[in-house]
Write a structure and sequence with these properties.
Layout: E1 7-13, E2 16-22, E3 50-56, E4 69-75, E5 80-89, E6 116-126, E7 141-142, E8 145-146
Antiparallel strand pairs: 1-2, 3-4, 5-6, 7-8
Pfam families: Integrin_A_Ig_2, Integrin_A_Ig_3
Main location: membrane
GO biological process, one term: integrin-mediated signaling pathway
């Protein structure tokens, strides 16, 4: 008939989290009630794509052979917005018109002007992320001519980067 707040108490039973809610005491025989529950669950990042709740109705009054239970599976969808930021240092590079690539040279300046490209991947939330793969396609050849001589790749913050086959081929 009316709306009442339930008194619920969380506890652990046999390694699982249990929430016990008192629906009414005493409850009249043959009473029918509807319960709407809102559950807030944290730490779902590693739960997979669904979480399952087992709901069971028990009576304290008399031994009952009926222990009505139902299983509810709720899909879990993590939401996180990723943002990729990039810079080139220096922002603008102009090669002198008299400059030429020196084949076989071990000197850096014979391979061009050093330009550092820095990329930052940011999680803007609200959820956390793991197992993210970032693929950057860097054009290092233009036809058969070297466009960018890739000298080194580095990462920070627990990330790893597989070795690129075109990385420092002349071992400069």
């Amino acid at each position: 008939q009316g709306q009442e707040k339930l008194s619920c108490n969380p506890k652990k039973e046999n390694g699982t989290h249990v929430v016990l809610c008192e629906l009414g005491n005493p409850m009249k025989a043959g009473a029918q009630i509807t319960v709407d529950m809102e559950l807030s669950v944290s730490g779902l990042e590693d739960m997979g794509d669904a979480i399952t709740f087992h709901l069971q109705l028990r009576s304290k009054n008399s031994p009952s052979s009926s222990k009505a239970s139902v299983t509810v599976t709720v899909p879990v969808e993590a939401e996180a917005e990723m943002e990729l930021r990039g810079n080139s240092l220096p922002a603008t590079t102009v090669l002198p018109t008299s400059w030429h690539w020196v084949e076989g040279s071990q000197r850096l300046e014979d391979h061009g002007i050093k330009v550092e490209h820095v990329y930052e991947l940011h999680n803007k939330g609200p959820g956390t992320v793991s197992g993210v793969t970032l693929r950057l396609a860097i054009p290092h050849l233009l036809g058969s001519h070297v466009l960018l001589y890739l000298l080194e790749l580095g990462t920070e913050g627990g990330m790893n980067c597989p070795h690129h086959p075109a990385l420092n081929p002349a071992q400069v």
